[in-house]
Amino acid sequence: MINQNRLQQDTDQPVLEHLAELRRRLIVIVASVIVLTAVIYTKAFLIVEILKRSVGNEGLDLAFFSLTGAFVLRVKLSFIASLVALSPLIGYQLLAFIGPGLTVKERKVLLSAVVYMVPCFVLGVILSYAVVVPSVLRVLLTYGNSYMKAALSGEEYISFIAMLCVVFGLVFTLPFPLIALGKLGLLRSSWMKKARFTIVFSVLVGEGLLAADITSVVLLAVPLILIYEISLRVVIRMEKRREAASQ
């Protein structure tokens, strides 16, 4: 009976330790997000001014159409900015949690992917803000201005720009998880070829539903297809090297 109790304790302890560690790391992430959101909230109007300049019109007037509209917009913007700013910390906490369960090779590959993903996400956001967003907004704002004047909701306007920047940032990070999984042998080029149309089409449909305009979908389609094809070629090349090394 004593031996059975010890065996049961030995089996349960790792699980309890993992749950306790997961709780600690989630607390760190949530507390960091709350604190940074509160800090950014006090200066959120500066972010609004920067986003308003994306169409080259600093005098653009935005409005809110509900009593809580301005407050909700400020909280939402602060929350998104804190998530982006804390993404390296969040990534580190996740890696530190799953790291002990991985092999040395898996940890190196995963760490390399994360290291490259962060600057590529930032690059995607900058390109979106500097090139894509102004193009999309000019088309949308000039459409129908001969017989109507735009009265823009601040919440809708800021959410639209933030969503576009985040989506483009995520698309630019796409090659690294695909290549990392291919390098570990968890992703085959044959599957990528079969899923090519489904993945690209799903992302573009999602972008179309969120942005509700065809311009952003077209602008997203070119880099998305190009990035996916480059990732596929890299995975194919790694498979050939692996097969040659095994012979």
From TrEMBL:
Its main location: membrane. GO terms for molecular function: proton motive force dependent protein transmembrane transporter activity. The chain crosses the membrane at residues 26-48, 55-73, 79-98, 110-137, 157-182, 218-236. The keyword Mitochondrion does not apply. One of its GO terms (cellular component) is TAT protein transport complex. Coiled coil: none annotated. It is a multi-pass membrane protein. Keywords: Cell membrane, Membrane, Protein transport, Translocation, Transmembrane, Transmembrane helix, Transport. It holds the Pfam family TatC. It comes from the Bacteria. The keyword Glycoprotein does not apply. One of its GO terms (biological process) is protein transport by the Tat complex. It is found in: Cell membrane; Membrane. HAMAP family: TatC (MF_00902). Belongs to the TatC family. Forms a complex with TatA. NCBIfam families: tatC (TIGR00945). Part of the twin-arginine translocation (Tat) system that transports large folded proteins containing a characteristic twin-arginine motif in their signal peptide across membranes. This is Sec-independent protein translocase protein TatC. It comes from Paenibacillus sophorae.
